[in-house]
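Incident log, support desk, overnight shift.

02:14 A customer reports that sequence design results differ from what the structure should imply. Their input is reproduced verbatim below. On-call engineer (initials T.W.) acknowledged and began investigating.
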């Protein structure tokens, strides 16, 4: 997938007729969204367009880069995450309209309230390819002539005072929308600014219900309180979104695995009831251990027979094409 995205970006860059359009994303006090064009001089628009695309090409031109479903996010640094939750993010649903709808209104720095500006987008449309880069706006991006001086060093090393406001565009991106699919570069920004933590917690409850139906845990409600912690909730989501344990392993096999793994090592944390057909969760550590089991984190090397605990896994199981 990385190679295909990189190929698309290069095709767009090489077509001199495809120039990214700048738009500003605004949210007013009532929460209403709007998008307004940037009235950019032609040559400047080309410079901006090339800068954003060049930066994206450099980012994806990395053999170590992983594209991971957001529901399966782990601690890998070289990664970008594909948004795969059913719960749509209203802001990005609205921004995606740039890929199909022509916005007519222009942003006016004199009349539009700068406090409503939440971010800016660069959108490219080339044949059947549609790409939008989004960057969150911060107040430091605007240098107001009424509150500060903007100085320019000219070619003779003389200092000149610029008389206009200056808006700084950062050519990096926080999110990308490719043909309607959202890719997240910065998960922290997603959680802090777009109420993503609420979606995480809602999906964690669905995972708890799936674990309840499996019948392995006697006091299943003890997981509900822990799910208020976003970090724990993320691990819960992976149980149903990424792990094959609940769908490919039956309960007796799973119980046998827990009892036998590393000569019963897991029994130090996971305690069974008197009939030994269900686990009674106690400490927070026992709940974390349970999630590691359900996320298939306890592995054995067929080469060395060494045992490992690993949250980061790439499935290399061969698929059979029919």
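02:41 Re-run completed on a clean worker. Output:
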């Amino acid at each position: 997938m990385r190679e295909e995205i990189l190929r698309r970006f290069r095709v767009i860059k090489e077509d001199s007729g495809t120039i990214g359009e700048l738009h500003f994303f605004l949210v007013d006090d009532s929460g209403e969204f709007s998008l307004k064009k940037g009235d950019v001089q032609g040559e400047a628009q080309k410079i901006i367009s090339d800068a954003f695309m060049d930066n994206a090409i450099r980012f994806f031109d990395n053999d170590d880069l992983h594209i991971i479903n957001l529901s399966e996010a782990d601690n890998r640094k070289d990664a970008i995450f594909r948004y795969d939750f059913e719960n749509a993010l209203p802001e990005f649903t609205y921004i995606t309209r740039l890929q199909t709808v022509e916005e007519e209104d222009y942003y006016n720095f004199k009349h539009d309230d700068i406090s409503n500006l939440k971010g800016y987008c660069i959108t490219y449309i080339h044949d059947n390819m549609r790409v939008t880069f989004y960057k969150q706006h911060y107040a430091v991006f605007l240098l107001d002539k009424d509150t500060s001086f903007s100085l320019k060093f000219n070619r003779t090393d003389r200092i000149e005072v610029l008389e206009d406001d200056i808006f700084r565009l950062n050519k990096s991106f926080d999110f990308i929308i490719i043909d309607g699919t959202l890719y997240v570069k910065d998960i922290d920004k997603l959680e802090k600014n777009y109420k993503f933590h609420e979606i995480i917690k809602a999906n964690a409850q669905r995972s708890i219900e799936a674990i309840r139906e499996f019948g392995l845990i006697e006091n299943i409600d003890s997981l509900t309180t822990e799910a208020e912690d976003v970090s724990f909730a993320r691990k819960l989501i992976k149980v149903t979104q990424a792990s094959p344990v609940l769908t490919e392993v039956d309960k007796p096999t799973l119980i046998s695995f827990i009892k036998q793994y590393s000569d019963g090592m897991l029994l130090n944390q996971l305690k069974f009831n008197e009939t030994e057909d269900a686990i009674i969760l106690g400490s927070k550590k026992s709940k974390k251990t349970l999630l590691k089991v359900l996320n298939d984190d306890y592995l054995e090397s067929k080469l060395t027979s060494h045992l490992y605990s690993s949250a980061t896994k790439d499935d290399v199981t061969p698929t059979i094409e029919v």
